[in-house]
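Purpose: get a first structural picture of the assembly so the mutagenesis plan has something to point at.
Setup: three entries, given in the order below. No constraints added.
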Amino acid sequence: MHHYITEGYVLPNQAHIYWTSMIVLYPYITGIVAGAFIISSLHHVFDKDELKPVSRFAMVMAFAFLLFATLPLLNHLGHPERALNIMFTPNVTSAMAGFGFIYSAYLFILAVEIWLVYRTDIVHLYNETKYPALKPVYWLLALGVLDISEEAKALDHKVMVVLAAIGIPAACGLHGYVGFIFGAIKANPWWASPLMPVIFLLSAIVSGVAMVMICYIVIHWVRGRAIDGACVTALIETAWYFLIIDVALELLELINHAYMANEDWIILKELVTGKLFVSMFIIQILLGSVVPFLAMGAVVVFKERIPAAVRNVIGVACGLLLLAQVGAMRWNVVMGGQMFSKSLRGFLNFQIDIYGREGLIAAAVILSLPFVVIYVFSRLLPLWGSVETFPKEWMKDKPPVRQPLKGYTKFTS
Amino acid sequence: MRHAGHFVRLLALVAIAMVGFLFVRSQVIPKDFGVKGHYRLSAVAEEAAREPRHLGSEACAECHDDISAEWTAGKHTTPQCENCHGPGLMHVKKVSDDSTAGYSDKILTQYETAINRSTGMHECRWCHLKTFERPSTLKSIASVEKHVVQHKGTFTPETKCIDCHNPHTAAVK
Amino acid sequence: MHRLSQPAHGGSQVTSISQPDDVSRRRFLETVAKTGGQSFLFGSLFVNTALLRLPQAGHDAKSRAETEIGKGVIYGFVVDTTKCIGCGSCVRACRAENDVPDGYNRTWVEQYTFYPDGEVFVNSPSGGEDGFADPLPTRNVPSGAEQAPMRGFFVPKLCNHCIDTPCIQVCPVGASFKTDEGVVLVDHEHCVGCGYCVQACPFGSRFIDPRTHTAGKCTWCHHRVTKGLLPACVVSCPADARIFGNVSDPESTISRILATNRVQVLKSYLGTRPRTRYIGLDSEVI
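Result (structure tokens, whole complex):
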């Protein structure tokens, strides 16, 4: 915490900002998790076939980000070595105390989901991997059980569907409680709102979909693989729909504040039109919402008339804008709420550190760690499709699997 | 159930993890947590065990009885001794049995300075330099220079209030 | 759909083989899981709120004036802003008594100055630690013109030790708690330094101590009070602007003051029910 230059009258203890980049980063990371999981669930639970090409990757991405969700919090705590107190002596009236349990439960659900999706591949790779050194890894991942009979697969599938269904409210809980952490604080008029959990959740989904979209297109560009147009369109559509609802609620929140014009509105108005002007109206609303709304809307409305190359560029560009939008939204809530004093008479100027424990570099490092995990995962298991889709890349050379000729009936034996 | 071997192993792992968690918790959680409420009971006693650092003017009188008598008889009894001279605990510790070991240098010097700090100028300003919001019943002056000149004194930048006023009784010397 | 595990039929347009039992069973499972999951979440949230957080349980209208006569020792605090002279003795005494870190305050004094054009100038230089010895009776007001002020006063502030504390409510680990006498304390061995209580306090009474990395705040000098002494700020105030005592004893000074004065609390609309009362507050004091 540093002394920040204050304007007007700021309560003495509020001349320091206590929640900085790490607290902006934490909901950002869990948001990407929630959004990626929704994409995967849209395929697994709601049978949206267009999203099949990204469903495995989305799940892996969700898991990779979830692994690091605690890191910004641990980095921020005054006593990270006592962090487990949250699970040993949780205060049931505190939304924050829910973190340990909600996070653990959701991590478990997601881990089992991925495990069940990949179990067939794991066993195949245990038997026939190109890299024998990895055999023990696959054995561990399979928990030593190599049963991939039809009955086992059918059971896996049933459990997977149930988990995916439970996973949706769990993902909502994981992200909704973060919104509640802010929304239930009556002391802060910028935060206190019943809309906060919903806004956090919806913007989370937007960010997750955007991240999946960017990764899908960019990775396939780089690897020179074909990009499934229907999938990109489905991603853009999903992002577009959720963006509309999300921005509608964000604007509703602001308009409600302005219309009701409570005692706090005088300073909030000055905050929004002053210190938060660029991050809110330029980044969050204009560049982050209006531009993607129009560009992605064109894809949704004009569908095939948009050439695939243009659509892919729109996907990546709007994805990046959406990531910026959601980041700006988190920033505006977390930092905005601390840039004015509870005296309702003064402001602080917040300058983010570059170095330092909660600086920009630390945030960038934490945000990039999930990609390291995704890369490591991609060395073990296929991110796109299964080992049967790309057998040569994964498995030892062997006689090709019987491929039935066209026109002949397939016999299952 | 056949073909559920992997689930059995998974659930076994989960069970082990949960048992492990509960075991670690039982060892780590403070024994007196939750006795009276959702907090560690000994925290109350720990907070109460801290030493009071302001001893009160009666404690000063035990050694500085002459000044104390003068102060009690004068017109300046609203501020306590420690208001201007700072808290007395460290000073008493040092002069009585030198039991100042274990206290950080920062606290020691802080209190040493406070005890010696009464510059006879700075402290008076706190109450007696005129501020608009102050109730007018309190005697205060708008500027030291004007006050000195008004009372036929010679003002220099080194002029102190205690040049003319007894700090303990407020009487003019 | 990955229900088909065999290699796909080459060139066939079969995309899904409708198997009604499988589909309806799956839909049923999904619905049950979703409904069950949501019901559980909402149900537990509702139960939590209802059972554990409703402060109105047992609260009747007349106890808004908070008489707790005869209920064992319960402490209270009164700040008389009509008497405060803005000397800052309380701030200095508190800082020395409690080792308050530089830049943070367990208690502080605010200066309010009212100008004819309606501007209110609020100030608290270093929390009032060095007094308010700015002798100029006129200041440049925000509108630019110099004006002589109309009226002004000082408001000392400290932790309100609320009855329905938002800070204890949000502490995730149970490091923030209330003693039987109503004093709100922090367990510095258990606090993880998350800062949630600092955000939840409507009065800005809390801070994170940069040396211990735990939450800090005014404790009503609990370590003095339990030894029969008064808080350092009360002892050092030369103007009798701070009063502390046992509100459950009808003969105590504080009880008599509460019984005979119009008292207010800060931000009463937030419902935290502070135990620190004020005499002489103005509507501009937030």
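The first strand of chain C starts at residue 75 and ends at 80.
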